[in-house]
Design a protein that fits this description.
globular, binds nicotinamide-adenine-dinucleotide, binds (2E,4E)-2-amino-6-oxohexa-2,4-dienoic acid, 23 strands, 22% strand, 485 residues
Length: 485
């Protein structure tokens, strides 16, 4: 299979005619050849996006633009199985997870921002003037222009559409650069865009790499008004540096080293189930996953043993099978990075409660990038394995003795994306929620999403908020109009 760029409504090869290989991490087999985008391809895509911006897209009424977004959502659902197969093959994520999370959310993102676009209000103020006649100020929302969308591999369709949908709802056109690990769903989405009648040039895809490739060229392009990026924190730094000369708007959703805090009064079974999900979902490759778990001392031993028992029982296997609970990591390179942390944890003095090694499966899965679900205890707060984002199926569990200590340990991180708190004492839950240095707090839950809420992180976990009206604010230029009466 060949995956090409999508520019001005058609699939095209790279100007350089370069390709790279895309592999299935469950088998190590090459599954497609992907066009390797460079600056020349970004140039073509931005030119197409500018033509559409000033042409057919701007001439559509808001209502018909938002109707098209609804049609894209329907188009994703109509091709659910193809999107599902694409995400499973590109990422190795289990069918169960992709069918419940990735694909439905791809469609839901378009529906949510179509609906938010229809309901968007504009501020207005009646102002005093010296002559007593007054003035009315109102606010126009205008498109930013061409928006560059750079997305990661862990939730490819979900995270791409989370940015494309609001950008289009606000009247922008987009050039997207999907992760080089997961090119397929962005190309399938292009087919949906064409099928439902989104004008050529509104949604463009340039495949390829980041540094010195399509990603960097998009960031540096003077006619790209904004970059919305999800990925690693250090990539955020590189993007910010490259974007500086052209003074673009930036929205960053970055890494995490998230804490789950479990009090002795929590519903034990729910806390175990929730923490199992928050540590091991998508093989630990969700930015919101809990890699640090703090448990109140009276239930610490029981919690560690029960969670380890549940982790050992997780079914590793072929991601295509409905019964599989954990697939491989995204690539052999990422597996080696995670295994490096497994070795480092032991060197740092961890007790390995379960896992800690690569997992070898049979048959065609023998070349897959599988690792065991892993739990550590016994590390100090300064251990690298407690401070650095690993992005694998692993957590460190540590006891605490007081609410103050739990807050102090949870906040002792360079990151600040989210936290999960498990307690039946609601006063305590609210008290802690206010003290957590993060962008999102889940109480007795995890990854429970309402797309109208602000989403993002503090510290090294991000800059800005997307979600609901926060997305509409980022993807629009606000213009104040002052009318003297
Ligand atoms: P990554 O930063 O390596 O890559 C993300 C994207 O950026 C890819 O498309 C890549 O090609 C591109 N890129 C890389 N370097 C670039 C550069 N110099 N210029 C322009 N583009 C560049 O991240 P990843 O490994 O794909 O994803 C995993 C990371 O993403 C983890 O750190 C995870 O926590 C984070 N993440 C955060 C969120 C969030 O909402 N906060 C969501 C998902 C993933
Ligand atoms: O749910 C979302 O909107 C979102 N942006 C999730 C990010 C998950 C990180 O891997």
């Amino acid at each position: 299979m060949f995956i090409r760029h999508f520019i001005d409504g058609v699939f095209v090869d790279s100007a350089s005619e370069g390709w790279f290989s895309n592999t299935n991490p469950a088998t190590g087999a090459a599954i497609s050849q992907v066009a390797r985008g460079e600056a020349a391809d970004v140039e073509r895509a931005v030119a197409a996006a500018r033509r559409a911006l000033h042409g057919p897209w701007s001439q559509m009424t808001l209502a018909s633009r938002l109707d098209l977004l609804e049609a894209v959502a329907d188009g994703i659902m109509a091709r659910f199985e193809e999107f599902l197969e694409a995400e499973i093959a590109d990422t190795g994520k289990p069918r169960r997870f992709a069918s419940q999370v990735d694909i439905p959310r791809g469609a839901a993102n378009f529906r949510a921002f179509a609906s938010l676009g229809r309901g968007a209000a504009s501020e207005s103020f009646l102002s005093d003037t010296p002559d007593g006649l007054g003035a009315i100020n109102y606010v126009l929302r205008e498109p930013l222009g061409v928006v560059g969308v750079i997305s990661p591999w862990n939730l490819p369709l979900l995270l791409l559409t989370w940015k494309v949908a609001p950008a289009l709802a606000c009247g922008n056109t987009v050039v997207v650069k999907p992760s080089e690990e997961t090119p397929t769903s962005a190309a399938l989405l292009a087919e949906v865009m064409n099928a439902v009648g989104v004008p050529p040039g509104v949604y463009n895809v340039v495949q390829g790499f980041g540094p010195n490739g399509a990603g960097e060229a998009l960031v540096r392009h003077a006619q790209v008004a904004a970059i919305t990026f999800t990925g690693e924190s250090r990539t955020g730094t590189a993007i910010m540096e490259a974007a500086a000369p052209s003074l673009k708007s930036l929205s960053f959703e970055l890494g995490g080293k998230n804490a789950a805090v479990v009090f002795a009064d929590a519903d034990f079974d729910k806390a175990i189930e929730g923490t199992l999900r928050s540590v091991f979902s998508n093989c630990g490759q969700v930015c919101l996953c809990s890699e640090r778990v703090y448990v109140e001392r009276p239930i610490f031993d029981r919690f560690v043993e029960t969670l380890a028992e549940r982790a050992r029982a997780l079914k590793l296997g072929d991601p295509r099978e409905q019964s599989t609970e954990m697939g491989p990591l995204i690539s052999a390179a990422h597996r080696d990075k995670v295994l490096g942390y497994f070795a480092l944890a032991e060197a740092e003095g961890a007790r390995v409660v379960c896992g800690g090694r690569a997992a070898t499966l049979d048959g065609e899965l023998s070349a897959g990038s599988f690792v065991e679900p892993t739990i550590w205890t016994g590390l100090g707060e300064q251990a690298r394995c407690v401070r650095e984002e690993i992005f694998g199926p692993v957590c460190h569990i540590q006891p605490f003795d007081s609410e103050e200590q739990a807050v102090q340990m949870a906040n002792d991180s360079d990151y600040g994306l989210c936290a999960a708190i498990w307690t039946q004492d609601l006063s305590r839950a609210h008290r802690l929620a206010a003290q957590m240095q993060v962008g999102i707090v889940w109480i007795n839950s995890w990854f429970l999403r309402d797309l109208r809420t602000p989403f993002g992180g503090v510290k090294r976990s991000g800059i800005g908020r997307e979600g609901g009206r926060h997305s509409l604010d980022f993807y629009a230029e606000l213009k104040n109009v002052c009318v003297k009466l």
